[in-house]
Every structure is written in structure tokens, then in C-alpha cells.
Amino acid sequence: MQSQARASFARSKTYWLAYAAVTFASAPLCAHDYWIERSGDSYTLYQGHVYSSHKGEERVPYDPVLVKRAACARDDGAVASLEFSRAYPVRVSGRCAAVLMEIDSGYWSQTFSETVQKPKTEVRGALRGWRAEESIKRIDAWDPRLAKPLSMGFELVPLEDPLALKPGDKLRVLVTWRGQPKSGVAVAYAGDARGVTGRDGEINVRLRRPGVQVLSASFDEPIEDPNADKVVRGTILQFEMKK
Amino acid sequence: MRTRIRCLSALSSTSPVPPKRVRSPPLCAAALFSAMISSPAFAHHGVAGVGAAGLQGPGAPIESATSANLPAGKAFAYLKLDHAKYRTFDPDPANPESDYANFWIAGLGYGVTSWLSAYLFVPYNSKIDEPGGFNTNGLADISVFGQVGFKFDKGLRLTPETESLDDLEDWRFTVFGGVSLPTGNPNIRDLNGNIDPSRLRQAFILDRCDSDEAIRAALDFQPRTLSSPLSGVRVRGR
Description:
Chain A has one helix and 16 strands.
């Protein structure tokens, strides 16, 4: 009994230390929740809390000007940019195995009492400011070419067919930035931090629930900008398990 | 004196839930091999084990250690004292009995890689009698360990450098081995050059006793002070 108690304590201590470290490192992960809804060949970008781990308004309108780019990975492996209207919600059309959208949420500042979407220089009493850049990728059909990044931006790349997995399986994902593996990036599943990427930029995430899967990652780096202290980059990988 | 290589295996799970059954041939083979090479666990004094939970005190049951490796490039320092206070039965000061014993173990560990850890354990013992009795202290045998860590994740593989919280649910295996160096003095003497009278009594039994049974009893005592776990296989899973 004594040995079990000691071993259990050692294990739980390790677990909670790791959990605390990962949770601390991934604090910005729950800041934004984009998802893409599909209807035939039409893809619509929404923001809100439908797939969030934290409560909030189901759909939160966003400024369509924030969406900077949309791309489609076709069945033949080619990646093409998609045109989209500057109206909310942003909608793109195409026959795509995967759709990628890049969003520049601009400057944010934090005061003692709130977080506002303004540059630090325009907010009285701002404690800190950052610039937020995000991307979201939805996969609807698997092609081995999707095991490589679709852009030079910040991206979560599944290294195997995620659509063939079932609840309880682990998915190995690669995090890339500027087309290269990015280490030390915090990755979350359904809003729960699961760890940081290794030197190869990879991490295993266990898919625990059926249906729509949302993996997210974020990292930040300081910038020389009077309006912000750092740039926070976030990315989301969305797909639906068929099993 | 000669260098001794001691063997014992341990199989355990650190999970609070019953370990799930793994039908992997490598695991079964490793567990079977471990069971076959196990020697009797006659621990009496504190012994060094791999991991904090594996360090035993006098009279403590044999416990299994965690199968976690040290992170690469990280060091581990350890100091343990087992203080054993003995009951005495003879109030006559002319017949001093054992009063207490201190069994110190200082340990150092280093994560050579994420899957290979190295350990050094230095034991120091002091055995104190009541006033007028026989006191000794000194180094016991220094132990050197190596530990190789594996995990089962779509096959057996060496413990990787970084893992997610989900990876921590995987089954773990460690194979460890080591030697104890003959740094302890089995004929330690006190400041006056006297040898422990209890050792003399034991020699007397072996030399003079006519009964086969008594000789066997005396010999049976020896492994209890000589065995310690220095190699084997450890397992844990979710």
C-alpha cells in the first residue's frame, strides 16, 4: 500500500506539474474560436463558442475585413486561392479537400478590467498589448499531400489521415511556421492544453470525442511596435471523425 | 572482496486503475524474462532503487520504483536517512545492546538522453550500541545504475524527448542494471581495532555447531544482508 501511495503521489505530482506548465504556456488558446461550416461546396467562417471549452455566445460577429486570405486544397493536390466577399459571415466556394483561412485580428490591449480590440497606444492604462494573427484549416477528405503545410503561415498539419481515426486514437500533428517545423508550441484539444511540440515540431493528441474535432495551437514572439508588445499567432485544425 | 552483481525484477503499475492487459509479445517476453531471472527479495537494510519510490528502509518490504526516466540533461540529487531505533530488553549496563542505526544513502542521477538515465548511490551506515557497546560506521558498497526507458505507442520505442499529456497515458517499460562496487568493509573495526563481537559469535556458530539445522539457519541469515535489486524490468501504464 505504501509503495502504491508513493508511486501514485509521484505520478500525480509529475502529471500536475506538466499540466500546470502546459496550461500556463497556452493561456491565449481560449481567446478566439473560429470554425468553418460546410454546405455542399460552400464554406462559411464563424466565430463563437459552439466548439469551445468555455462558455460564451454561440456566434460572435466579426469584422469581415479581418479575413486576409482563403485557400483551397483540391483533390488533385493543387492549392489555389479563393475569392470571398467582404460581408459577414465570410463565405467561399470550391470543391476542396481542405480549406484554409487566414485572419488578422489586429491589435488588442489589456487593462486592469478588460481586454479591448485597440492598439496599446490608444488605450488608457493599458497593461500590455499584442497583435493577433490566426488561421483555421478544415479537412473534409484526406490526401497524403495534406500531410504537408498548405501555406507559409502558422499551421497545424496532421501527419496521418485524421478522418479514419476513432475516439480514443492518437493523432500525430506537425506544427509549422514559415513552412518549417516549429518547436515549443502549445497545442490544445477541444480547448484543453495537451503539451508542447518537440524539436521536430510534432506532438501526439488523443481524440477523445466523436464528431467535430478542434485542435488549436499558439505561440507568441516580441515585436518592435509601439502598438503592441508581442504578436500572438494561433491556428486551428478542424475535421470530423466519421467513425 | 569482489564486485557483486545483484539481480531482482519488479513489475508494477503506477496507475490507480487496474493495468490493462497488453498482449504484446515483446511485453510478455520481457515480463517472462524478468520473472525467470528474479532472485529472492531478501531485503533487510535500505537499498537503492531507481526512482524516489524505490528506496527502501530497514525492514521495509520490497517496493517497485516508477518506470520514469530522468529528462535529458537534467540531474537528480537524493539524500535519505533511515533511522532505526531498537528495543532493548536487558537493563544491565554491563550487557549493552544495539541502540540505533543510521542508514544514509546519497544519490546522484543524470538524464544522459530522454531514454537513458545513470545513477550513483553512496550508502553510509552507522550502527550504535548502548554505552559500553560496539559502535561502527563507514561506507557501504557504492552502486552504479543504468536505466533504459521504453514506451509502447503503436509499437515498442525508446522514450522520446518530449511527450504530450496524452502520451503520458502510454505503457512504460524500463530495463535497468548496475553493479555495486566493493567499497564497503565487511570486517570493519572500531577505533580500538576491535571487530564486531556479533560477527565473532556468528563465526563461532559456523565453526563449532554440530547441528546441521543450526548451520543452515546461520547460512540462511546471510542472503538477507547481501541482496538488493540492481537489475530488472519495470512497467507502468494507464
